[in-house]
């Protein structure tokens, strides 16, 4: 929603958008409050505009039916307030519905993609048959010979993710929210699912299965190994969601929902579930000081949504190491980087990868004579310390040994 305004030679000191509908929540019903401070609009309201040109616009995201209201813009100058008495912009939030009517030609029907208000900008309508796009037109009407076994829905171009509920006369369907799912080993996954059938039928049985013996489908809840491992969250109306707990790598397979009614039976296509563990790859695993080491947190499939990765050393989180990338680089390592490394994904920090051990060896330090070069390496409390050594003469080696906690005096090694 946009508006233009002007204050003449008076300076604009502040401005805001508000809705009179929200006045009950204001501290003073006569003093409008900024929409951005209203809890019902938290995180969904944005302002844009050019104050010097007298332009302002209001953007509301994730619209809800309760957002239907009048919206007004006001601005304050050094001497007065303007805009409260002017009419605002009325917003009506609508969803889409498909209505079926008989056409004049025998056997033909007309589908109407309807809304509770007239959409602006002359929208283009998209029609779907059994979930697949079949037609795109500026008209909200779709006339054809429709099969009672098919389902139809519509959307507005640019908002294809907001389809109307599907309608059908005698349709049979099983619809999954995701056709393929990636999940972590030992976690829990819900396979969301809905189904339709003729309204005059009664559900007799509903179940999930993975294998078909050729004679009948075996209910997964009665298969050894799945008892107590799966839970049917659906009902005998339209919801067929399946929950699988404590996932195992062996649970990776295709899952199908099947239901039997008083007048028929139907099975959906498979949902592919891939169960993965988290694997840390370290390259290389043994390095000299000041070299780089690359850690890669791998899974067999792509987790959704995009994952944040956590990195650990000796079982403790590495400070400020969380990344959206599965790759973490240890730059110019020192002996203090020696240790056991692992990784995990956000939300499943209790399911880290197996540990990989990094070994950092002392960098070779040259002396005066190549055949007598020596590096001193001490191991103290499982930490490796490297110290440079310098030849004073052909048979005297001097090493400076420094610890974080204390300093040892110079030590002299004499060759016999």
UniProtKB/TrEMBL annotation:
Predominantly monomer of isoform CD22-beta. Also found as heterodimer of isoform CD22-beta and a shorter isoform. Interacts with PTPN6/SHP-1, LYN, SYK, PIK3R1/PIK3R2 and PLCG1 upon phosphorylation. Interacts with GRB2, INPP5D and SHC1 upon phosphorylation. May form a complex with INPP5D/SHIP, GRB2 and SHC1. It comes from the Eukaryota. Residues 87-156, 270-359 form the Ig-like domain. This is B-cell receptor CD22. The lineage of its organism: Eukaryota, Metazoa, Chordata, Craniata, Vertebrata. InterPro entries: Ig-like_dom, Ig-like_dom_sf, Ig-like_fold, Ig_CD22, Ig_sub, Ig_sub2. SMART domains: IG (SM00409), IGc2 (SM00408). Most highly expressed siglec (sialic acid-binding immunoglobulin-like lectin) on B-cells that plays a role in various aspects of B-cell biology including differentiation, antigen presentation, and trafficking to bone marrow. Binds to alpha 2,6-linked sialic acid residues of surface molecules such as CD22 itself, CD45 and IgM in a cis configuration. Can also bind to ligands on other cells as an adhesion molecule in a trans configuration. Residues 22-41 are annotated as: Disordered.
